[in-house]
Design a protein that fits this description.
single chain, 487 residues, alpha/beta, Rossmann fold, 5-stranded parallel β-sheet, 16 helices, 10 strands, 33% helix, globular, disordered N terminus, binds 2-acetamido-2-deoxy-beta-D-glucopyranose, membrane
Length: 487
């Protein structure tokens, strides 16, 4: 489950590659008329597919939505930013540039028009905790009086903290901040109100990084989430573990819109893209992971010739973290393949949603078991599921499966419309201004955790034990049972 801080970024260096890719794709387009795959029809109504997602009106009243933010000593958050060079220990890239603009990184201009000017940034995928905190500082229902608060936010930068120590052998060094943090928290009057069950943390790395189960030095990560106090709290992060008090919310992408109309302009752009490829994969093989489907996917993509476009993310081949490269590719494809990577999830899921490219999942842990607040319950509405339980049983035929789905043009366009409607729910809007109508990923996450805490409060009011089902391990969470493929 190791996911080192390999810095996956949206830097903007290899523009010449884009030019090369454009050239290659132009050749493809000139030689083959794939007009069957090129569709700009947008007349399929979403009503066929249930109520449109992402168009709900935002709650106006703060009743039941007040949040108290703990004023933690700066060693738990700000100091990591002040000493940003040290976060990068063990990698050869510098994290400091990615901390500017509320944690969004620097702005990206794009003369080719694949992005919208002024709302794309070189955002590091591991900076959710900084982005979330900055957004929370402008949350409309903050309170300084914790007795009014429905939830208590603990702005500890757990991911930046552990990235200092990921390669440090000493267990006591790795766990030291976590232990200091809970010691600080339980001394506060807010703790005793619900024994921490109304507290939540937000981390920019996968939850497994905080779930070290033994004190064996070769074991990965910290023990933060197994400390008794921490078990009483909830944590939101880019990938949840199999324990019930961990919740997944979207990875930060590079798109941080300021206004509703910017989102609508982007959605409209995605509705009218020409999509010459049936499917696409951006990624690298994982030859050292025995059960990885990536090798098979790459083989099939190559064998499918003009139907599939591959963006090889092997070191040095293409800059897959440059959103210009990724958006250009994903905007030109109907389906985007999303196999597991080093862990179950990948930021690419959200890049494909941004591009209006229907994601194809191979494992329920990649999205369905994760982003329950942000993505629709009925996964057939917005995605294709081709379960691969064991790569040894791999049956070739992604191309035929997708061609078959593509025959039902109305269904595919309905799915695409659902994907496009999801865009506001998976972006972290710029806190400089406020979205009026759309709920973004932050709003959805805050709504989700407030509901969760409210149900715990209800349990306590009813005199029941709130620990039942709160932090249990769920062995089935990432198994295939319960997610039946429909294709
Ligand atoms: C976006 O910015 C680039 C420079 O970064 C400029 O060349 C281009 O014309 C701009 N596009 C629009 C639509 O304003
Ligand atoms: C909380 O208190 C601080 C310092 O007294 C003040 O600056 C801030 O505006 C207050 N915030 C709210 C939401 O009342
Ligand atoms: C581990 O952390 C300690 C305390 O910060 C530090 O002195 C030591 O050099 C670190 N070791 C490694 C291998 O990073
Ligand atoms: C966790 O919550 C339970 C009540 O649900 C409480 O009895 C226990 O003391 C709490 N643990 C800590 C470390 O505060
Ligand atoms: C689909 O992929 C297989 C390899 O998995 C290949 O043999 C076949 O030609 C492809 N079909 C099409 C229509 O591209
Ligand atoms: C889920 O959506 C698909 C197509 O979008 C539909 O056929 C199916 O009936 C839905 N399932 C449920 C349980 O609503």
């Amino acid at each position: 489950m190791e996911k080192p801080i390999s810095v996956k970024l949206c830097n903007n260096q290899q523009l010449w590659l884009v030019v090369l890719i454009s050239f290659v794709s132009c050749l493809v387009l000139v030689c083959f008329d794939y007009s069957a795959l090129t569709s700009t029809e947008t007349d399929v109504t979403t009503s066929l597919f249930g109520p449109a997602i992402g168009t709900q009106t935002k709650p106006r009243s703060c009743f039941g939505r007040y949040i108290y933010v703990h004023d933690l000593p700066s060693r738990f958050n700000q100091e990591f930013l002040d000493n940003c060079e040290s976060i990068t220990r063990g990698t050869n890239s510098n994290m400091c540039p990615y901390l500017v603009n509320s944690g969004f990184g620097s702005k990206i201009g794009d003369s080719q028009g694949f992005l919208l000017n002024n709302s794309w940034y070189s955002t590091n995928q591991f900076l959710l905790e900084v982005i979330f905190h900055n957004r929370m500082k402008r949350y409309e229902c903050l309170t300084n009086d914790s007795s009014f608060a429905s939830a208590v936010y603990v702005p500890f930068y757990a991911g930046l903290d552990i990235s200092h120590y990921l390669w440090n052998v000493s267990i006591s060094v790795r766990d030291s901040s976590a232990k200091e943090l809970v010691k600080w928290l339980i001394d506060k009057p807010e703790w005793r109100r619900m024994w921490g069950r109304d507290h939540f943390l937000v981390a920019g790395r996968i939850s497994w990084d905080f779930r070290r189960q033994t004190d064996d030095e070769s074991d990965w990560g910290s023990k933060l989430r197994f400390l008794p106090e921490s078990k009483n709290m909830s944590m939101l992060s880019i990938e949840s573990s199999s324990w019930d008090n961990d919740y997944a919310i979207p990875y930060p992408t590079c798109f941080h819109p300021k206004t509703d109309s910017e989102i609508e302009a982007w959605q409209e752009k995605m509705r009218t893209q020409k999509r010459p490829y049936l499917f696409t994969f951006a990624g690298a093989p994982r030859p050292d992971l025995d059960n990885s489907v990536r090798g098979k996917i790459i083989e099939e993509c190559k064998a499918s010739k003009k139907l599939c476009k591959l963006l090889d993310c092997n070191y040095g081949v293409t800059d897959c973290d440059n959103p210009v490269n990724l958006m250009k590719l994903f905007q030109s494809s109907v389906f985007c393949l999303q196999p597991t990577g080093d862990s179950y999830t990948r930021r690419s899921i959200f890049d494909s949603i941004l591009a209006g490219c229907i994601p194809v999942f191979f494992h329920p842990g990649t999205a369905y078991a994760q982003y329950k607040w942000n993505l629709p319950k009925n996964y057939s509405d917005y995605s294709v599921y081709i379960p691969v339980r064991d790569v040894k049983d791999w049956k070739a035929g992604i191309n035929e499966t997708l061609l078959h789905i593509w025959e039902d043009r109305e269904r595919v366009l309905g799915m695409r419309e659902q994907v496009i409607n999801l865009i506001p729910r998976v972006v972290y809007a710029d806190p400089i201004s406020r979205l009026e109508r759309f709920e973004d990923a932050f709003d959805v996450a805050v709504g989700g955790i407030l509901d969760r805490i409210e149900s715990v409060r209800r349990t306590i009011r009813e005199g029941k034990d709130p620990s039942v089902g709160f932090a249990d391990g769920d062995d089935y969470k990432y198994t295939f049972s319960g997610y039946v493929g429909e294709t």
